[in-house]
Amino acid sequence: MYHEINHPFLKHKLTALRDKKTEHKEFRELANEITMLICYEALKNIEVEDCPIETPMAPMIGKKMKNDIVVVPILRAGVGMLDGILTLVPNARVGFVGIYRDHDTKKPVEYYSKLPEGVINPIVFIIDPMLATGGSVVATIDLLKKKGFNNIVLVSIISAPEGIKTVEKAHPDVEIYTGNVDEYLDENKYIIPGLGDAGDRLFGTK
Ligand code: PRP
Ligand code: URA
Protein backbone atom coordinates (compact mmCIF):
# COMPACT_ATOMS: atom_id res chain seq x y z
CA MET A 1 0.00 0.00 0.00
CA TYR A 2 1.23 3.51 -0.69
CA HIS A 3 0.80 6.73 1.23
CA GLU A 4 1.29 10.12 -0.43
CA ILE A 5 2.01 12.79 2.15
CA ASN A 6 -0.40 15.65 1.58
CA HIS A 7 1.04 18.38 3.76
CA PRO A 8 1.25 21.93 2.40
CA PHE A 9 4.67 22.57 3.96
CA LEU A 10 6.07 19.44 2.31
CA LYS A 11 4.62 20.49 -1.08
CA HIS A 12 6.24 23.91 -0.59
CA LYS A 13 9.65 22.31 0.00
CA LEU A 14 9.16 19.89 -2.91
CA THR A 15 8.54 22.78 -5.28
CA ALA A 16 11.88 24.34 -4.35
CA LEU A 17 13.58 20.95 -4.79
CA ARG A 18 12.10 20.43 -8.26
CA ASP A 19 12.96 23.92 -9.52
CA LYS A 20 15.80 23.64 -12.06
CA LYS A 21 17.33 26.83 -10.64
CA THR A 22 18.00 25.06 -7.30
CA GLU A 23 21.70 24.13 -7.10
CA HIS A 24 23.31 21.23 -5.27
CA LYS A 25 23.88 22.87 -1.85
CA GLU A 26 20.25 23.90 -1.46
CA PHE A 27 19.07 20.72 -3.19
CA ARG A 28 20.89 18.59 -0.58
CA GLU A 29 19.47 20.62 2.30
CA LEU A 30 15.94 20.36 0.91
CA ALA A 31 16.26 16.62 0.24
CA ASN A 32 17.13 16.04 3.91
CA GLU A 33 14.38 18.34 5.21
CA ILE A 34 11.80 16.62 2.99
CA THR A 35 13.06 13.21 4.12
CA MET A 36 12.46 14.18 7.74
CA LEU A 37 8.90 15.23 6.98
CA ILE A 38 8.09 12.00 5.09
CA CYS A 39 9.85 9.77 7.64
CA TYR A 40 7.99 11.35 10.55
CA GLU A 41 4.81 10.10 8.89
CA ALA A 42 6.36 6.73 7.95
CA LEU A 43 7.33 6.15 11.60
CA LYS A 44 3.75 6.39 12.79
CA ASN A 45 3.21 2.63 12.60
CA ILE A 46 6.20 1.58 14.71
CA GLU A 47 5.38 -0.47 17.76
CA VAL A 48 6.13 0.81 21.24
CA GLU A 49 6.10 -0.88 24.62
CA ASP A 50 5.64 0.35 28.16
CA CYS A 51 8.74 1.83 29.74
CA PRO A 52 8.62 2.79 33.42
CA ILE A 53 10.66 5.92 34.24
CA GLU A 54 10.74 8.62 36.86
CA THR A 55 10.45 12.25 35.84
CA PRO A 56 11.82 14.79 38.35
CA MET A 57 8.19 15.04 39.56
CA ALA A 58 6.74 11.49 39.58
CA PRO A 59 7.06 7.91 38.36
CA MET A 60 5.25 7.18 35.11
CA ILE A 61 4.90 4.54 32.42
CA GLY A 62 6.36 5.94 29.22
CA LYS A 63 6.82 4.29 25.83
CA LYS A 64 9.87 3.08 23.96
CA MET A 65 10.33 1.66 20.48
CA LYS A 66 10.21 -2.14 20.31
CA ASN A 67 12.21 -2.68 17.13
CA ASP A 68 15.63 -1.64 15.97
CA ILE A 69 15.65 0.47 12.84
CA VAL A 70 17.93 -0.24 9.89
CA VAL A 71 18.16 2.41 7.17
CA VAL A 72 19.20 1.30 3.69
CA PRO A 73 19.99 4.06 1.18
CA ILE A 74 20.14 2.87 -2.43
CA LEU A 75 23.44 4.24 -3.75
CA ARG A 76 24.01 6.74 -4.82
CA ALA A 77 21.05 9.14 -4.61
CA GLY A 78 19.64 7.51 -1.45
CA VAL A 79 22.64 8.89 0.45
CA GLY A 80 21.11 12.33 -0.07
CA MET A 81 18.31 11.35 2.34
CA LEU A 82 20.46 9.70 5.01
CA ASP A 83 21.14 12.70 7.25
CA GLY A 84 17.42 13.48 7.26
CA ILE A 85 16.31 10.11 8.61
CA LEU A 86 19.29 9.85 11.01
CA THR A 87 18.31 13.21 12.49
CA LEU A 88 15.01 11.59 13.50
CA VAL A 89 16.41 8.17 14.44
CA PRO A 90 20.04 8.77 15.43
CA ASN A 91 20.59 5.23 16.76
CA ALA A 92 19.50 3.52 13.53
CA ARG A 93 21.95 1.15 11.90
CA VAL A 94 22.80 1.77 8.26
CA GLY A 95 23.23 -0.72 5.43
CA PHE A 96 24.06 0.15 1.84
CA VAL A 97 22.85 -1.30 -1.44
CA GLY A 98 24.54 -0.12 -4.63
CA ILE A 99 22.30 -0.23 -7.69
CA TYR A 100 22.27 1.91 -10.80
CA ARG A 101 19.88 1.94 -13.69
CA ASP A 102 21.59 0.94 -16.92
CA HIS A 103 21.27 3.87 -19.34
CA ASP A 104 20.25 1.69 -22.30
CA THR A 105 18.14 -1.10 -20.81
CA LYS A 106 16.82 1.00 -17.85
CA LYS A 107 17.20 -2.19 -15.80
CA PRO A 108 18.81 -2.16 -12.34
CA VAL A 109 22.44 -3.28 -12.04
CA GLU A 110 23.58 -4.27 -8.55
CA TYR A 111 27.21 -3.52 -7.66
CA TYR A 112 27.48 -3.38 -3.85
CA SER A 113 25.80 -4.41 -0.64
CA LYS A 114 26.80 -4.20 2.99
CA LEU A 115 24.08 -4.81 5.57
CA PRO A 116 24.16 -4.90 9.37
CA GLU A 117 24.47 -8.39 10.85
CA GLY A 118 22.82 -9.89 13.92
CA VAL A 119 20.01 -7.34 14.28
CA ILE A 120 16.94 -8.97 15.84
CA ASN A 121 13.65 -8.31 14.05
CA PRO A 122 14.47 -4.82 12.68
CA ILE A 123 12.28 -2.54 10.61
CA VAL A 124 14.17 -1.64 7.44
CA PHE A 125 13.62 1.79 5.87
CA ILE A 126 14.80 1.82 2.25
CA ILE A 127 15.48 5.39 1.15
CA ASP A 128 15.69 6.51 -2.48
CA PRO A 129 14.49 9.88 -3.77
CA MET A 130 13.07 8.56 -7.06
CA LEU A 131 10.72 5.62 -7.59
CA ALA A 132 10.53 5.53 -11.40
CA THR A 133 10.04 2.10 -13.03
CA GLY A 134 10.45 0.48 -9.60
CA GLY A 135 13.22 -1.82 -10.86
CA SER A 136 15.88 -0.57 -8.40
CA VAL A 137 13.56 -0.83 -5.41
CA VAL A 138 12.25 -4.30 -6.31
CA ALA A 139 15.85 -5.54 -6.73
CA THR A 140 16.73 -4.03 -3.32
CA ILE A 141 13.74 -5.62 -1.58
CA ASP A 142 14.55 -8.99 -3.22
CA LEU A 143 18.10 -8.72 -1.87
CA LEU A 144 16.96 -7.67 1.63
CA LYS A 145 14.43 -10.49 1.88
CA LYS A 146 17.07 -13.04 0.76
CA LYS A 147 19.21 -11.82 3.68
CA GLY A 148 16.30 -12.31 6.11
CA PHE A 149 14.97 -8.74 6.40
CA ASN A 150 11.21 -9.01 6.08
CA ASN A 151 9.76 -5.92 7.75
CA ILE A 152 10.39 -3.28 5.08
CA VAL A 153 9.15 0.28 4.48
CA LEU A 154 10.07 2.33 1.39
CA VAL A 155 10.53 6.10 1.61
CA SER A 156 10.76 8.00 -1.69
CA ILE A 157 10.56 11.73 -2.34
CA ILE A 158 8.84 11.47 -5.76
CA SER A 159 7.18 8.41 -7.28
CA ALA A 160 5.73 7.53 -10.67
CA PRO A 161 2.44 5.59 -10.73
CA GLU A 162 4.22 2.86 -12.75
CA GLY A 163 6.86 2.36 -10.02
CA ILE A 164 4.29 2.18 -7.25
CA LYS A 165 2.33 -0.47 -9.18
CA THR A 166 5.46 -2.53 -9.83
CA VAL A 167 6.57 -2.50 -6.17
CA GLU A 168 3.05 -3.23 -4.91
CA LYS A 169 2.73 -6.18 -7.30
CA ALA A 170 6.14 -7.70 -6.47
CA HIS A 171 6.06 -6.96 -2.71
CA PRO A 172 2.52 -6.20 -1.48
CA ASP A 173 3.72 -6.34 2.15
CA VAL A 174 5.99 -3.28 1.74
CA GLU A 175 4.45 0.06 2.74
CA ILE A 176 5.46 2.98 0.50
CA TYR A 177 5.64 6.54 1.83
CA THR A 178 6.18 9.23 -0.78
CA GLY A 179 6.20 13.01 -0.96
CA ASN A 180 4.34 13.06 -4.27
CA VAL A 181 2.93 10.76 -6.92
CA ASP A 182 3.77 12.43 -10.23
CA GLU A 183 2.16 12.03 -13.64
CA TYR A 184 4.05 9.52 -15.79
CA LEU A 185 7.43 8.25 -17.06
CA ASP A 186 8.82 9.65 -20.31
CA GLU A 187 10.42 7.54 -23.07
CA ASN A 188 13.72 7.52 -21.10
CA LYS A 189 11.89 6.38 -17.95
CA TYR A 190 12.35 9.74 -16.22
CA ILE A 191 9.58 10.97 -13.95
CA ILE A 192 7.46 13.84 -15.36
CA PRO A 193 7.37 16.52 -14.02
CA GLY A 194 9.84 15.02 -11.49
CA LEU A 195 13.07 16.83 -10.73
CA GLY A 196 15.52 15.41 -13.27
CA ASP A 197 18.41 13.19 -12.23
CA ALA A 198 18.40 13.11 -8.43
CA GLY A 199 21.99 11.81 -8.07
CA ASP A 200 23.44 14.44 -10.38
CA ARG A 201 21.52 17.26 -8.70
CA LEU A 202 22.49 16.10 -5.19
CA PHE A 203 26.15 15.68 -5.93
CA GLY A 204 26.66 18.34 -8.60
CA THR A 205 27.99 15.83 -11.12
CA LYS A 206 26.30 17.31 -14.21
C1 PRP B 1 18.01 6.68 -9.74
C2 PRP B 1 17.22 6.76 -8.45
C3 PRP B 1 16.76 5.35 -8.26
C4 PRP B 1 16.54 4.89 -9.67
C5 PRP B 1 15.06 4.90 -9.95
O1 PRP B 1 19.26 6.18 -9.55
O2 PRP B 1 17.97 7.25 -7.38
O3 PRP B 1 17.68 4.52 -7.59
O4 PRP B 1 17.19 5.82 -10.53
O5 PRP B 1 14.77 4.32 -11.16
P1 PRP B 1 13.93 2.98 -11.30
O6 PRP B 1 12.77 3.08 -10.35
O7 PRP B 1 13.51 3.02 -12.74
O8 PRP B 1 14.82 1.82 -11.00
P2 PRP B 1 20.33 6.05 -10.74
O9 PRP B 1 20.19 4.74 -11.45
O10 PRP B 1 20.23 7.27 -11.61
O11 PRP B 1 21.71 5.96 -10.00
P3 PRP B 1 22.46 7.01 -9.05
O12 PRP B 1 21.70 7.06 -7.76
O13 PRP B 1 23.80 6.39 -8.91
O14 PRP B 1 22.49 8.35 -9.75
N1 URA C 1 16.14 8.52 -11.71
C1 URA C 1 16.18 9.85 -11.48
O1 URA C 1 17.14 10.35 -10.86
N2 URA C 1 15.17 10.60 -11.93
C2 URA C 1 14.12 10.10 -12.59
O2 URA C 1 13.20 10.84 -12.97
C3 URA C 1 14.09 8.70 -12.81
C4 URA C 1 15.11 7.93 -12.37
Key words describing this protein structure:
alpha/beta; Rossmann fold; nine-stranded mixed beta sheet; globular; binds 1-O-pyrophosphono-5-O-phosphono-alpha-D-ribofuranose; binds uracil
Short description:
Helix content is 32%, strand content 32%. It is of the alpha/beta class and 206 residues long. Strands 1, 4, 5, 6, 7, 8, 9, 10 and 11 form a 9-stranded mixed sheet that branches. Strands 2-3 form a two-stranded antiparallel ribbon. Strands 12-13 form a two-stranded antiparallel sheet.
Query: Uncertain regions: pLDDT < 50 for 5+ in a row?
Result: none
| Percent in helix | 25-40%
- CATH C-level class is Alpha Beta
The CATH topology, please?
Rossmann fold
Report the C-alpha radius of gyration, rounded. 17 Å
Number of helices: 6
Q: What ligands are attached or bound here? A: 1-O-pyrophosphono-5-O-phosphono-alpha-D-ribofuranose, uracil
Largest sheet: 9 strands, mixed
- Category from helices, strands and their pairing: alpha/beta
The SSE order reads EHHEEEHEEEEEHEHEEEH
Report mean pLDDT, rounded to a whole number: 97
Task: Quickly give the CATH architecture.
Answer: 3-Layer(aba) Sandwich
How far from one another are the termini? 35 Å
Tally of strands: 13
Basic shape: globular
Strand content: 25-35%
What is the count of distinct domains? 1
